[in-house]
Amino acid sequence: MPVAPPTAVVRPAPPVGAEPAPEPSRQGWLNRLRTGLKKTGSGIQAVFVNAQIDDELYEQLEEALLMADTGIPAAEHILQDLKDRVWRHSATTPQAVRALLVDAVAEVLKPLEKPLEIGRHTPTVIMVAGVNGAGKTTSIGKLTKHLANEGCTVLLAAADTFRAAAREQLAIWADRNLVEIVSQAGGDPSAVAFDAVNAGKARGKDVVLVDTAGRLPTQLHLMDELKKIKRVIGKADTDAAGGMAAPHEVLLVIDGNTGQNALAQVKAFDDALGLTGLVVTKLDGTAKGGVLCAIARWGEERARTKPGTAPVPVYFIGVGEKLEDLETFDAREFAQALVG
């Protein structure tokens, strides 16, 4: 018998000022993120207390956004977009304007929202870089847990051979997550990465995560070492079918507390390595968080001026030290937490 076509269900859009309820599984995470960005959220919320919709409100909002580390280009863009939205929606209350500000910030951040893709290459080789103290090795441990929860088999490569504590720390994460690790005391980091990629292929692993030594982008000789690791990984695994040599992902871990310096790090590491994604850590109380808006605006500008490029997405953000304190990035959730 013929089957009747499904009937479309039309639901009214939520009124200005109303936020859609998050999925139950994300509610706890969103609460932790709001707590982590409370410093910025409280500052922006204060602007709307007993406010009039006038030039003074926009001036105070601009100051609050700059204090949140959005940078001037992003703050100016957000404010102009907000004014346009206020005019289009005929918003007349502080609550409505604040809701429209969430929309404006979410739209700026939307290009950073992209899932990490695993499975197109076997193994998917992920190289992880970052400056000392950004939480790189800890983030690798959390990312390993996240991938394991998704059913992926992971092999860790302790290519930070300059610091013995880094190898020991990564080994602890390997034990916690019940995954294998390739490590070599005092060895050449490129050789460790090469061996790990070959081991991952031989053992049928889904993912090989390569930890590298933390360094500042101004340390040119160490940045050259990172470039060498990337080249050697490529020699270890060239995907003939996909036509893409490893590493398939080059992630930079940045500390959410470092403000505009985080943007400088993204630019420098991208120039050296060609970043494919970011992990933002330590959004847990003192971080302002607005630098993600600055990174998004830089990415949009780069895409306009360099054909074939795109904004560097934020795959994960972290709000604490626990394994569950690393989650996928959602632009609207982050905007809600940032605006307060």
Automatic annotation (TrEMBL):
A GO biological-process term: SRP-dependent cotranslational protein targeting to membrane
Residue numbers binding GTP: 130-137, 211-215, 281-284
The SRP54-type proteins GTP-binding domain, residue ranges: 313-326
Low complexity bias locations: 1-11
UniProt GO molecular function: GTP binding; GTPase activity; signal recognition particle binding
Membrane-topology annotation of the record: Peripheral membrane protein
EC top class, as a word: hydrolase
Keyword Calcium set for record: no
Keywords in alphabetical order: Cell membrane, Cytoplasm, GTP-binding, Hydrolase, Membrane, Nucleotide-binding, Receptor
Main function: Involved in targeting and insertion of nascent membrane proteins into the cytoplasmic membrane. Acts as a receptor for the complex formed by the signal recognition particle (SRP) and the ribosome-nascent chain (RNC). Interaction with SRP-RNC leads to the transfer of the RNC complex to the Sec translocase for insertion into the membrane, the hydrolysis of GTP by both Ffh and FtsY, and the dissociation of the SRP-FtsY complex into the individual components.
Family: Belongs to the GTP-binding SRP family. FtsY subfamily.
Protein name, UniProt field: Signal recognition particle receptor FtsY
Species, as recorded: Pseudacidovorax intermedius
